[in-house]
Model the fold of this input.
Amino acid sequence: MGIGIIALVFVGLVVVVLAWVAGAYNGLVRLRNQLENAWAQIDVQLKRRHDLIPNLVETVKGYATHERETFEKVIQARNMAVSAKTVGDRAEAENVLTGTLKSLFAVAEAYPELKANQEFMRLQEELSSTENKVAFARQFYNDSVMTYNTHIEVFPMNFIATMFNFGRREFFEVKAEDEREAPQVKF
Amino acid sequence: MWEQIIANRRRSALLITGMAVILLLIGFTGGELLAPNAGVLGLLFALLLWGGMMLAYFTSAESILMAGAYARELKREDSPQLFNIVDEMCLASGLGFMPRIYLIDDPAPNAFAVGRKPETSSITVTTGLMYRLNRDELQGVIAHEIGHLKNRDVQFMTLAAVMLGSIVILSEIVRRSLWYGGRGRSRSDSRDGKDGGQAQAIILVVGLLFAILGPIMAQLLYFACSRKREYLADASGAQFTRYPEGLASALEKISQAHVPLSFASKATAPMFIVNPLTAASEDGDESDSVFSSHPPTSQRIKILRAMTGASFTDYEAAWRKAKCGSLIGAQTLQSAPTEPIRAPSNEGPIQSRQDAHDVARRASGYMRLKCNCGLEISVPEGYEQDSIRCIRCGSILPIPSAGEGEAPAEPRRPDSAVPPVIPLAPLQFHRTSTGWESFRCACGRTVQLSPAFDAPQIRCTACGRTIEVT
Done:
């Protein structure tokens, strides 16, 4: 009877450990899916921003007909952002796009009729809120990465993580544009 | 983050377990008192009662609060800025679904969130909130409400409320049956012997004590739960916005408004961001009693303003300075290291007072008519006349019947002859691509056509000229 009890306890322990492993694995899967969903959300917001820009340029063109350079820069930057592939390229392209948009809005400052235009105001609000949404989507993505990375590195979990190949993920870093631009000398 | 919910539940689970213990104790001793060795039956009865109430809750309609408050659901075009703010907070919290948004036309600033399931969750704000708070503050309030949705506070507090209700009912039953049945029993038992009578008396006293104190203790636990969840929602709000000062100054403005909310009652008070029943009184929401559903507002503001960063860890640090014990579970803190506070946005309120009322009226089905003198008139649904007089210039405006859509009517001047309007020939525009296109009207305005636009004509918003699109 002694062996019977020991065997029972052993089986019980194995069941408990397996249940824990299953639970931990599921937890990691859930976190990873949340991460990927967060990344997709950033995509959605960035795409929305790309879609708003041609409209904006058209509206401004109607009033500020001589600022062709600015318009071309914006459209170019937008196309670059749409076609960028890797995470690093995308972050950089989006940064450049933000810079060109700033100069476009600076141009718009000089045309009071444009500023009063309903369509322009609507687009400005839409763009500014899209910028906010990109920022928040990025914030949530980074929060998720932090949670996920912490989770796979703490003590009992790191075994499960290595066993099932859950790797660290990187943050969506955005460096300030000033750091990256080389000083330009104009004569 | 499901992690947060679990970590926070650990603390709240203790409180709920306390309530469950009280429920079962009352059931057990009540059963014992009514008939010897019927303690287990009493326990089962308590569980059945609780189960029955849970069932009743889950199968009931959710709209009781909303119906009483004349809340109107908003569509995105009614208030795009409000929808944008909610969008932003949904993204920042990773909520996963967009709650419905309701507006109540009331000058008292307040907000609440309800939702048993994601599909039926909703956030309600009052017009008073919309025009008093600037964008950062409104964002903070919405973040707090979304924090409630994210932490599943509504389900949690309902669970606690059902427990409290069961405890109250159960103790009522025990008390009444003791009162009417106890006296008869003690007379018959005393024939068995003096010892039996004494033991009975002790159990009687203990049982009565449970039956009387049980509900009070349960209430204490319930309100402790409610207060903890409010603090947690504050912490979540600060984490999502990365700007705790927004929520802090919003709470300050709300508590200083001193305007009573017309439709709140004791039952619905816990769901609001600031207790609406006490907010209107002179000293605001400073009730520190153990029976208040919300923590004192000054305390909440103090903790938010003491934060040196914007994450859960920073809230926890500020909390520990102000109170003893801890609020947030270790697992959550682990994955929420300190975050820098972002800069304020310096944007003003999203609607002026008049605009906020207009949004509410439009959502209630009011029609907007524009008179020639520039005044916009809101006509309520169900207005029976077919014309209305402009109060500024006296012109009579015909009211378009339902089905004509939003076309503004041509005002008739009562005395002078109206020159006949010769309609200009419609302009023609031929679409060349399936993407965005713009067209310059004769008046100078640019008209944008989206890829989804497929009507045969469009009207220029500036001059009213018809443009045919082919």
